[in-house]
Amino acid sequence: MKDMNSKQNAIAIITARGGSKRIPRKNIKEFCGYPIIRYSIKAAVDSGMFQEVMVSTDDMEIKTIAESYGAKCPFMRSEATSNDYATTADVIKEVLTNYKSMGRTFDKYCVIYPTAPFVTGDILRKAFEVLVKEQADFLTPVAQYNFPIQRCFCISDGKLKKKWPEYQNVRTQDLEPLYYDVGQFYIGDSEKIFCVPYEKRNMTALVLPEDIVQDIDTLEDWNKAEEKFRKMNK
User: What is the pTM of this model?
Assistant: First the structure.
C-alpha cells in the first residue's frame, strides 16, 4: 500500500463556474469570514495528496480569488462546460484533456465542489486510504439516511400510501442501511473516467457523519451550514 502521507500522482479539480442562479456568486460568497471556495482549496492543499490543486472556472474574479489562496488556473473553462447542462464528468474530462495537451497526466483525480466547507485535508487523506484498501477505481462520500426510507410514503391521486408496503412489519434493525451522496467530492481513475460507464464502475464509499454534511442550494441551506460550521469549529 502506498504511503498516504505523501503526494499521489493526483490532481485536485475544484469546479467553480461563475453562473449561479439561486445564490448569486455562490462560489465566492463569504462563508464564516472567507470566500467559500477557500475552504475547498485549503482542504486540498492541507491534505498533501496532490501534485496539482487547480480550479476550473469561466470567471476571472473566481480565478483571481482561487489563485490568491494557492490554487492554479492554467486555463479557463470552455463555454461547453460552463452551461447549466454540463456535467461534472464533462468538466473532469476537459481538465484532464487540457493537462494532457500540456504534457501532464495524473493517475487519479479528485473533484471537490467549491461549496464544501466541511471537507478537510484529513477527510481527503482518509478517502484515498479507503480507495487503496478496497482496491477500487472510484470513491464517493456518503452519509446514512437517519430514517428507514423503506417505510416512506408516496401521494397518489391525492391519497397517502406506503411506497413499499412489504416493509411495514419489518423491524427497523432488520432493514438494510441505505446511503446518499453528500455532494462534496469524488475521487476517480483518470483513464477509466473516459471509458467506464457509471453503472459499471468499481466504486467504494467513505461514510461521513451527518454533522459534517449539508447541501447548500438555497440561502436557508447556507445559513444552516454556517451555523453548523461555527458549532463544529468553536
Answer: 0.93
